[in-house]
């Protein structure tokens, strides 16, 4: 009887305690809501020129958070924000926080340059038997379109849009016959496209009513670390030859092999590893191996951030410039002082002085024909 009593007692206690002794089920956590980014293209005011012209700033953003800002003055790329290997965004271009910095004068930060990018020797050329004289704004030579090139004019907005794949801004400018000495009324446009695949595309188009010469490019100064000098950046160029230049940086006409010289970037090499052996630093046109096709021209890797920038172009050349003339006299974004070698340029282009070098790929544009070229910058981190 005692045994049966204790068995019944234990059963009763167990039944009574089961609901109260049950372990509490933890409250399920709310699922993390990831930020949903959409492709977007927006416009805002960026100030006025000295003659009262309104300047707009266009912001293109993609689904990964990359952000490109372009303004109507000079069709300038004002900033390009790209994540590092840890996902931290940084602006990887040199420039200014306000329009005033650009209006005060600068070394073509982010600019669309033309009508002819780079140099034309003796500031003149002959076309169809007529000699055209240009502004000698680089010693005795002509540089980047003259005193008031495409980098110093106000471009007109033609298109601003976004969809699920890309965000786009299209800007246009009409360069009148005789402007800066060039022949022909030239109607041109530049299209900036930021894709969902983390590419920033530069597309150029132009038509003329009179035979002329044209060579458009973007002159952004890049720094994939966001600050400091760029000498530790590792550069690869798809070029086995470079254009030899004289003391005024005008091509002699010779395209020389890079092999066994400090000009060789056919394999990854830090920009600063041999720059001391190049008088004045790098400021040279490289002859690309795959001209005429949209192919990889360059790749740059910055070890501390892990950022990588690849460049694809249909142009025959690319100008490597290592910020040799930056001297600390300019204070840019967020109070950063731009010292020597604090940025590098990779300007896709036709060769310098091509109007005077018939052996170089032609830069002549005829009426009825269309100038069209594209360059793509692809960004990622490793």
Account of the protein in words:
- The protein is mostly beta strands.
- The protein has a single domain, classed as Beta-galactosidase, Chain A, domain 5, CATH 2.70.98.10.
- Helix content is about 5%, strand content about 40%.
- It has 2 helices and 27 strands.
- A 9-stranded antiparallel beta sheet has the order 11-12-13-14-27-23-22-17-20, with no helix packed on it.
- The longest helix is centred in the N-terminal third of the chain and has 20 residues.
- It is globular.
In short:
The N and C termini lie far apart (78 Å). The chain has helices at residues 2-21, 99-103; strands spanning 40-48, 54-61, 67-71, 76-83, 89-91, 111-113, 119-120, 124-127, 130-133, 142-143, 156-162, 166-175, 186-195, 199-208, 212-213, 217-219, 234-237, 239-245, 251-257, 269-270, 283-288, 295-301, 307-313, 317-321, 345-349, 364-365, 371-381. It has 382 residues and is mostly beta strands.
Keyword list:
382 residues, mainly beta, Beta-galactosidase, Chain A, domain 5, 9-stranded antiparallel beta sheet, 5-stranded antiparallel beta sheet
């Amino acid at each position: 009887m005692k045994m049966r009593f204790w068995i019944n007692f234990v059963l009763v206690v167990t039944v009574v305690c089961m609901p109260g002794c049950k372990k509490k089920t933890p409250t399920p956590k709310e699922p993390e809501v990831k930020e949903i980014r959409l492709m977007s293209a927006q416009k805002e005011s960026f100030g006025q020129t000295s003659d009262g012209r309104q300047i707009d700033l266009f912001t293109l953003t993609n689904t990964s958070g990359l952000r490109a800002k372009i303004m109507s003055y000079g069709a300038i790329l004002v900033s390009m924000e790209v994540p590092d290997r840890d996902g931290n965004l940084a602006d990887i271009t040199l420039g200014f926080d306000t329009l005033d910095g650009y209006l005060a004068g600068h070394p073509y930060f982010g600019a669309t340059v033309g009508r002819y990018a780079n140099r034309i020797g003796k500031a003149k050329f002959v076309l169809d038997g007529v000699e055209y004289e240009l502004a000698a704004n680089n010693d005795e030579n002509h540089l980047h379109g003259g005193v008031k090139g495409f980098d110093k004019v106000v471009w007109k907005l033609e298109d601003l849009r976004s969809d699920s794949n890309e965000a786009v801004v299209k800007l246009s400018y009409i360069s009148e016959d005789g402007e800066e000495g060039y022949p022909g009324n030239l109607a041109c446009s530049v299209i900036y496209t930021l894709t969902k695949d983390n590419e920033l595309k530069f597309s150029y188009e132009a038509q003329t009513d009179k035979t002329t010469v044209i060579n458009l490019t973007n002159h952004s100064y890049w720094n994939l670390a966001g600050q400091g000098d760029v000498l530790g950046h590792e550069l690869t160029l798809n070029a086995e030859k470079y254009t030899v230049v004289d003391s005024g940086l005008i091509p002699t006409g010779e395209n020389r092999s890079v092999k066994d010289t400090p000009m060789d970037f056919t394999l990854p090499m830090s920009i600063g590893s041999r720059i001391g052996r190049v008088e004045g630093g790098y400021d040279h046109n490289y002859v690309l191996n795959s001209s005429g096709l949209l192919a990889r021209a360059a790749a740059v890797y910055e070890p501390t951030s892990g950022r990588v920038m690849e460049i694809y172009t249909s142009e025959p050349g690319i100008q490597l410039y290592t910020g040799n003339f930056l001297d600390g006299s300019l204070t840019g974004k967020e109070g950063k002082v731009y010292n020597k070698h604090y940025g590098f340029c990779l300007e896709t282009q036709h060769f310098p002085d091509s109007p005077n070098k018939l052996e170089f790929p032609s830069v002549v544009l005829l009426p009825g024909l269309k100038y069209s070229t594209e360059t793509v910058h692809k960004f990622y981190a490793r």
